Structure formats: structure tokens, C-alpha cells
Predict the structure of ABC transporter ATP-binding protein.
Amino acid sequence: MEMLKVSQLSKSYGKQVMFSALNHISFSIEAGELVGVMGPSGSGKTTLLNMISTVDQPTSGEIYIEGNNPLSLNGDKLALFRRRELGFVFQDFNLLDTLTLGENVILPLALDGVPVKEQDRRLTKVANILGIKHLLSKRTFEVSGGEAQRTAIARAIIHKPALLLADEPTGNLDSNASRIVMELFEKINQEEQVTTMMVTHDPLAASYCNRILFIKDGSIYNEIYKGSSRQQFYQQIIDVLSLLGGASREF
Ligand SMILES: Nc1ncnc2c1ncn2[C@@H]1O[C@H](COP(=O)(O)OP(=O)(O)OP(=O)(O)O)[C@@H](O)[C@H]1O
């Protein structure tokens, strides 16, 4: 089943002088996939994520999430769609400092009026999956970046979204914390069938995905699938990035 379908999506910025950030991009993500999006700085990755997460409108083209077109919704209906069908993980965690980590995780359920007993049941489940049960009464300043990101992932999946969107989820983490976070993305993908699309500059993080879409100048440049070995996939990713051009720090 197609979880995400992007059809002929284009986005231009500017009025007198138009700049085309995305040019007729089309691709799909099937239920249960873990897909990475890579490309040089300025290639359009954030623009694409902003269209899919419905925070911005495309100039033309269509987006379907589980067969629904969120761009046809507005106001409260769009906010509700975003809250129920999408989960977000950001580079800088975006946790609320005034709440405990546990309160942060249940926020999407509390906003949706889910009964407290059900909130507690789901909190226990995701806290076990993400290994953060012992941290739930702590606050953001009392935990490491890796622990904060694991909390953010728990919050992003507690309401069982159709699609989990992640923007540079390892961008603020050291290599050890990055590996743990990526193993958890892999685990929730494999064990909980969470369909995920992740923008990343980090080839090691990308090697945990099943498929990578490479974007260059607002168009799909290439896509590669993981075979049996993550190490081999990592090397393939490095090879495509070097073909894409640009200094490695630009990725
Ligand atoms: N609001 C905007 N107005 C005008 N141009 C924009 C706007 N947002 C992005 N752009 C331009 O669109 C292009 C794509 O930007 P985008 O942020 O999507 O790239 P990116 O691949 O996410 O880059 P990075 O890896 O550096 O975050 C860039 O050339 C950028 O300058």
C-alpha cells in the first residue's frame, strides 16, 4: 500500500524573479519503508519536507498521504490531519522545557482527548521501545541529546501516525548517540511498521534506511536500495554522493 505519493510536485519562490526549488518531483513510499532523502545543500530537501508536512503549499503538483490529499484541507481540518496522520522528529528535538519528558511524549494524545488510561498504556509501550522509561520524570535539561531525541521519537510515534517525517534527526548528536538513534529508527520501522521519510546529510545515518532518494537542483537524481549489507549500502551512498559533486561538507 502506498503511504505517500508525490506527483509532479514543483515549488517556485519569488515574484519578479522566480527561483525553482523543486521541479516536477514524483515518487512514492510504500507502507513499512524507511526512506532517506539526501542531496547537496540547497537542492530542495527542506522544501520537499515542508510540502509533505503541509507547512507550505506547492506551486503545482499533488501529495497523497494514505490516499488523502492534505492540501485540499484547510484550517482546523488540516491541523487535525497533521496532528493525527503525521509524526515529526527535528534536528533540535523540539521538546517543551516546562514539561517532563513523559508529559512531552503524551502531548499528541492529550491534545486529541485520548482517555488518560489509554495515554498511560501507550506511554509505557513507546517508552519501553525507545528505552526511556527511567527518564520519564526528568526534564529536558537533565538528559543528553541522544536521550532527548529518543524522547522526541517516542512523541512522534505515540499516536501511530501514517507517516513519520524526520529532518536531520542525528544532526545534533555525536557518532555514538547517532548510531543508537538510527538503530531505534530501524527498530520502530521493522517491529512497529512505522513508515518513515528522513532527510539527512549523514551517510552513516542514511545507511540504516532501506532506500535513498538523491535530489539535485530540485529534481530526483538517483535512488538506491539497500541489499543485505549495511556496510555495502554505506559505500554505495558515499559513491553516489561523490558523483553528485560538491565538497563533502556541503552534504
Ligand atoms: N522561502 C524561500 N524563499 C526563497 N528561496 C528559498 C526559500 N526557501 C528555500 N529557498 C531556496 O530554495 C532552494 C532549496 O532550499 P532548501 O532549503 O529546500 O534546500 P536543502 O536541500 O534543504 O538545503 P540544506 O541542506 O542546506 O538545508 C535553495 O536555493 C534556497 O535558497
